[in-house]
Amino acid sequence: MATTACFIIVSRNDIPIYEAEVGSATKREDAAQMHQFILHAALDLVQDLAWTTSAMYLKAIDRFNDMVVSVYVTAGHILCICDFKCYRDKKTGENGE
Which PANTHER family does UniProt cross-reference here (predicted)? Predict the structure, then answer.
């Protein structure tokens, strides 16, 4: 099963500092654009949630098809955002998050 995940670090001014795609799937340009679209769409949700909760780890803040977005917010409001595929266990029906 070949999958990729995308990891981005974003500054408090919404400037990308670091971006990496990891995984075993072949690199395709449209897949990279899809990851960027999903992560940038989740930024609005992160902006709202970061100020309303004291939690630093925001688990599964957004979903798109089988992709899940998780975020870690540092004390300086630097965002570490990751999107990855979420699989259901066929036996139990539970998510593999």
Answer: TRAFFICKING PROTEIN PARTICLE COMPLEX SUBUNIT 2
Identify the pLDDT of residue 27: 61
pLDDT in tens, 31-63: 667 777 777 778 888 887 877 888 888 888 888
Distance (Å, whole) CA 79 – CA 39: 11
CA distance 29 to 63: 21
Least Cα distance to 3 among 26, 20, 19 occurs for 26
What's the CA dihedral at 13, 15, 18, 20 to 10 degrees? Answer: 120
Start-to-end Cα distance in the chain: 16
What secondary structure letter does DSSP report for 6? E
